[in-house]
Design goal:
Distance between the termini: 23 Å
Order of helices and strands: EEEHEHEHHHEHEHEEHEEEHEH
Shape: globular
Strand order of the largest sheet: 5-6-7-3-8-9
Number of helices: 10
Radius of gyration: 25 Å
Helix content: 25-40%
CATH superfamily of the largest domain: P-loop containing nucleotide triphosphate hydrolases
CATH architecture of the largest domain: 3-Layer(aba) Sandwich
């Protein structure tokens, strides 16, 4: 587990202006075995929080606590960490193979071990065909993939991924997310920063949301979605006579004799019984709920 307690961070942006408060007593934890999403608009404080976790910069106040699972010291924690920054730097004149081997040697890996890891993750992430090319010939998506290989080469227990699917096409985004789920099932803890809410909703079990340096949510994704349930259902159907449904909600006529109605969830059994009595055709029946994006970005207060 990684725990941040009352983290506060300010920056001096201009000599003649007061300090800018980037993080305002932020507290949250990333539990062992989770895929934890870290959401916020640009400038919310996500990257600043990550830099403080990694000890790249110091907070003005507060504490960062590391689980014993990742080692008893910061040095051991770093050895158990895989980190993919939002804008990684690559040595342009190295090949992909040379770059990842260099990163593996920083972790004191033996040649047979890192060669096997590079082969495995290169193939799994679809970059094996380009390992012998120099990095200045890589596209943005290819650089993202080779960066992920370097992040995984030493088999870390804890992954911090800052915008890991940035620059990838839809197929590449799915491949990276599939790998993240596989890693989590294998026991890895993943802290996944993004501003793309649908990616978080798709694979994350827990969620932390920052807004303008303040934490507005820390909890389960499922709990947040359930708490904002509309209690409504959308039904598309076809019957000979829709009059008996008028008391349940406004009916919208569709093409080819079909109709749509929005009903309260408690009225669903009544509607289904009426459909059955008329031997009607039920096309769609689903709950009408806001998406995670609707919940997170349509409010500027604590959720």
């Amino acid at each position: 587990m990684i725990e941040l307690v009352d983290i506060q961070k300010t920056f001096k942006k201009d000599l003649f202006k007061s300090r800018f408060e980037a993080l305002k007593k932020v507290s949250f934890s990333v539990n062992d075995g989770d895929i934890c999403g870290f959401l916020g608009a640009n400038g919310a404080g996500k990257t600043t929080s990550i830099k403080i976790i990694l000890n790249f910069i110091q907070s003005d106040s507060g504490q960062v606590r590391y689980s014993n699972k990742f080692g008893s010291s910061y040095k051991q924690f770093i050895k158990n960490l895989g980190y993919l920054p939002e804008r990684p730097y690559f040595h342009a004149n190295l090949t992909g193979q040379d770059f990842v081997e260099y990163m593996a040697k920083l972790h004191d890996m033996k040649r047979p071990d890192y060669r096997a890891q590079i082969k495995h993750w290169g193939e799994r992430l679809g970059i094996d065909h380009a390992l012998d090319r120099k990095l200045h010939n890589y596209s943005k998506g290819m650089l993202q993939r080779i960066g992920f290989v370097a992040c995984l080469v030493h088999d870390p227990n804890f992954l911090i991924l800052d915008e890991p699917v940035s620059g990838l096409d839809p197929v590449g985004r799915k491949e990276i997310k599939d790998v993240m789920v596989e890693l989590n099932k294998a026991g890895k803890t993943i802290f996944f920063s993004s501003h793309i809410v649908s990616d978080i909703e798709e694979i994350c079990s827990s969620l932390i949301v920052l807004d303008k340096g303040s934490m507005i949510y820390d909890g389960k994704v499922s709990d947040l979605l359930v708490s904002r349930s509309s209690g409504l259902c959308e039904v598309i159907y076809k019957v000979s006579d829709s009059d008996q449904f008028k008391s349940l909600g406004d009916i919208i006529s569709l093409a080819d004799g079909y109709s749509k109605i929005i009903i309260k969830k408690e009225n669903r059994n009544e509607l289904l019984a009426a459909l059955s009595s008329q031997k009607g055709e039920l096309v769609r029946f689903l709950e009408v709920n806001p998406t995670l994006e609707d919940i997170v970005y349509q409010t500027n207060k604590r959720i």
